[in-house]
Amino acid sequence: MAFEGDASEAFAEVAPYRDGAVYVSYYSGSSEWERHPNGDEVVMVLEGTTTVILLGNAGEERFSLVEQELIVIPKGVWHRFEGSDRLKVMTITPQPTEHSLDTPTT
């Protein structure tokens, strides 16, 4: 995620789960691209707002999320968070996670 200061302070592992973990994070801003080649990721907004961008063959697809909404990001799909405002989010994230600063090719 892109923010000022030490990014590790924005994330906490709540519990291990299958091949990954349940995480809670709290931040504002936008993230780099990421994908999870071994499984779907569940993202639930606990507080704040964000736009989740999924990158597919047809280009970018945007989903605006507010408190108590969730999205399931399919296995292997590049995605990022944009314009997050005081976002507290819980994720169930499979590992490994691949990252890219530049927009990846699908």
Automatic annotation (TrEMBL):
Transmembrane segments: none annotated. Coiled coil: none annotated. SUPFAM superfamilies: RmlC-like cupins. Residues 29-92 form the Cupin type-2 domain. It comes from the Bacteria. InterPro entries: Cupin_2 (IPR013096), RmlC-like_jellyroll (IPR014710), RmlC_Cupin_sf (IPR011051). This is Cupin domain-containing protein. It comes from Dyella telluris.
